[in-house]
Amino acid sequence: MDITTTDLGLVARVQNLSKSYGTDRTRVDALRDVDLGIRRAEFTAIMGPSGSGKSTLMHIMAGLDSPTSGRVWLGDAEIGGMDDANLTLLRRRRIGFVFQSFNLVPTLDVEGNLLLPFELDGRRPTTRERDWIDELEQALGLEGRLAHRPHELSGGQQQRVAIARALATRPELVFADEPTGNLDSRTGREVLELLRTASTRYGQSIAMVTHDPIAASYADRVVFLADGRIVEDRGRSDAAEISRFMLDMEASS
Ligand SMILES: Nc1ncnc2c1ncn2[C@@H]1O[C@H](COP(=O)(O)OP(=O)(O)OP(=O)(O)O)[C@@H](O)[C@H]1O
């Protein structure tokens, strides 16, 4: 019998993953033979220089892009052979996303955007979920903005709505691409605390792409990519250690 992703204590996994874009002279090897598992209830930071493959890895793990070769599991389901309808359902039920581009619906107000994942799933939040949404709104300072549309918000406020929306249904896995990129340092810290709370209190797994050593220091695990390969996989580290490693990595490249 095969060992499942769950048996390994993981919520998502890639094996021998490679991704190339273009052909011949225009070919770019964005990922080269990557093996990675995202552990249950753990907060993982993915770091690396610009162009090292972080976003590509996250998009493939989330089933938003397909690999050139290798295998990908979301939970125990291998997504390689899955049709679009099943993949969409799997994503909707199990995954939350915070994209760099926020992906808010412009015609819905903040509250409408926050409730969208429930709408798409054809249900309303339970009382406990409603309490959690209220807590997210409060922690992210959105209470005064619930009737506003995205274009009436600052970039940082839009970012916070995207984060609250990704966490609202308490999906077992949250992918976040530079979630603190547009935030001032105090709000950024609150977002990182929230992500940590989501993993410690609710057992959610968080996979966060970041360039920021301080943001990465909130994570339980820090994975470094360089030139499409994993070059380091370490436990919780402080911001100074992470900065030092990044500088050493850049110096040796
Ligand atoms: N759609 C695409 N077509 C062609 N090349 C691509 C495409 N998407 C990414 N790449 C290339 O793949 C490599 C990895 O890109 P990726 O966006 O994953 O890097 P990253 O580590 O997330 O970078 P950054 O920190 O700048 O966001 C880069 O060299 C990039 O130019």
Automatic annotation (TrEMBL):
Keywords: ATP-binding, Nucleotide-binding, Transport. It comes from the Bacteria. SMART domains: AAA (SM00382). InterPro entries: AAA+_ATPase, ABC_transporter-like_ATP-bd, ABC_transporter-like_CS, ABC_transpr_LolD-like, MacB-like_ATP-bd, P-loop_NTPase. Residues 12-252 form the ABC transporter domain. The keyword Transport applies. The keyword Magnesium does not apply. One of its GO terms (molecular function) is ATP binding. This is ABC transporter ATP-binding protein. The lineage of its organism: Bacteria, Bacillati, Actinomycetota, Actinomycetes, Micrococcales.
